[in-house]
Every structure is written in structure tokens, then in C-alpha cells.
Design a protein that fits this description.
By secondary structure, this protein is mainly α. The protein has one domain (12-121). Helices cover 84% and strands 0% of the residues. It has three helices and no strands. It has helices at 12-38, 45-111, 113-121. The protein starts with 11 loop residues before the first helix and ends with a helix. The mean pLDDT is 84.
């Protein structure tokens, strides 16, 4: 049986991260652009540092979103694995019962009791 991912709705945390990322992106762009225009369209070390910090902040937000998504997916996979394990346990029990019955029949055939039982039925 193949694993088919279920379509799920985004959690509150994921929605919050999405709006936070858009907010940080827009605010960071606005402030960095404002500093760039105020300095006369020249790059300074403060502006380069601000841009890198802004990009690192966006990267951290994206990574936390990815981690949350992986946590949700692992939860779904674990539930599916538990279900498959239970099905395999049931199948193993059925096979063990069949093997026990086959052993009884084999012992009966070997000792000759099986032919006596079938002759009484006729």
C-alpha cells in the first residue's frame, strides 16, 4: 500500500509565519530602501550589514516554517506506520494459526490418524 499524503489545512502557526515573513520582507525592504536613498544611492557597511541581517531573518523564518511542516508530515507518516504495523500483526497471527493447523494435519498424516478419520467419514 502506497503512502498517499492527505491534503491538510495550514495550522495557525503556519499562517502566522506567512504573515510574519511578508511583514518582515516588506518592512525590511522599505527601511533598507529608505537608508539607501538617504545616503545618496551609495552602499555603506551599515547598509550591507542591514541587508545581510534582513536576509538572515527571512531565512530563519522560512526554516522554522519548513521545520513545522516536516513535523506535521512526520506525524501523518507515524500514524500510517502504526496502522500498517497493526495490520501486519493481525496477518502474522492468522498465518501462525494456519501453520498450527497444518502441523496438526501433518502429524496426523504421519502417524496414520488422518486416514482413519477420513475413512470414518465415508
Amino acid at each position: 500500500m502506497l503512502f498517499r499524503p492527505k491534503i491538510r489545512k495550514p495550522t495557525f502557526f503556519e499562517k502566522l509565519l506567512m504573515f510574519l515573513c511578508f511583514g518582515v520582507g516588506a518592512a525590511g525592504y522599505f527601511f533598507i530602501n529608505k537608508i539607501y536613498l538617504a545616503e545618496g544611492k551609495m552602499l555603506s557597511w551599515e547598509m550591507v550589514i542591514a541587508m545581510f541581517l534582513w536576509l538572515i531573518l527571512i531565512f530563519v523564518i522560512i526554516q522554522s516554517s519548513i521545520a513545522e511542516d516536516q513535523k506535521e508530515e512526520l506525524g501523518l507518516i507515524f500514524k500510517e506506520e502504526i496502522l500498517q504495523t497493526k495490520l501486519l500483526q493481525d496477518l502474522t497471527k492468522e498465518q501462525n494459526e494456519e501453520i498450527k493447523l497444518l502441523r496438526k494435519d501433518l502429524i496426523a498424516i504421519h502417524t496414520g490418524e488422518y486416514s482413519k478419520k477420513t475413512s470414518k467419514r465415508k
